[in-house]
Amino acid sequence: MEKAKSNPKLRFTWLAHLLTPEFLADTWKQMNRRGASGVDGETMKEFEQDLDTRVQELCERLKRGSYRAPPVRRVEIPKGPGKAGTRPLGIPTAEDRLLQRAIARILEAVFEADFLECSYGFRPGRSPHSALRELRRIIVTKKVGHLFEADIRGYFNHIQHDWLQAMVAHRIADPLILRLIGKC
For residues 171 and 50, what is the distance between their CA atoms, to the nearest angstrom? Predict the structure, then answer.
């Protein structure tokens, strides 16, 4: 978003108008649609069968302010190889997953302008592999004295959601978008 890049202090007051049926349908095309079903048991394939009607109804509920985020199905999945125990995983319904992804697209457009070029974590078009390629390039072409690796263990288990929402509110002032983020 050019406005975000040209003015880092700008607060976006009106973004909810972007949540149109067309935007949601486009978001659906970009999503991984192989995920497990949420608490309602509806698969992504079932949701997709009537996609046009479903996104239209979702947009109408958003406009009326009657959208209610459904509960998230919680499952415990094993930690990676060599790690003991499990970690919790929340599985939203197909509709909620679509809305969350659409909101994430809007937030990415705003906040992408704020990130440094050297930042790779959870950014569109970037991956751990691209971070490693860049790290290799720097080590090979520049004088490097030290290399530090950090792993923020349990970050998502301990993040302070109120603080995170306050940081988002520095750039986003649209009350509907902030309310929807709070429901996620």
Answer: 35
CB atoms near residue 82 (< 10 Å): 5
Instruction: Give the model's pLDDT for residue 1.
Output: 67
Q: Do the beta carbons of residue 34 and residue 44 sit within 8 Å?
A: yes
List pLDDT tens digits, range 90-132: 999 999 999 999 999 999 999 998 888 888 877 888 888 999 9
Residues whose CB is less than 8 angstroms from the CB of residue 173 and which lie 6 or more positions away in sequence, other chains included: 11, 12, 13
Q: Are 40 and 93 in contact (CB under 8 A)?
A: yes
Burial zone of 108 (CB within 10 Å; 0-12 exposed, 13-18 middle, 19+ buried): middle
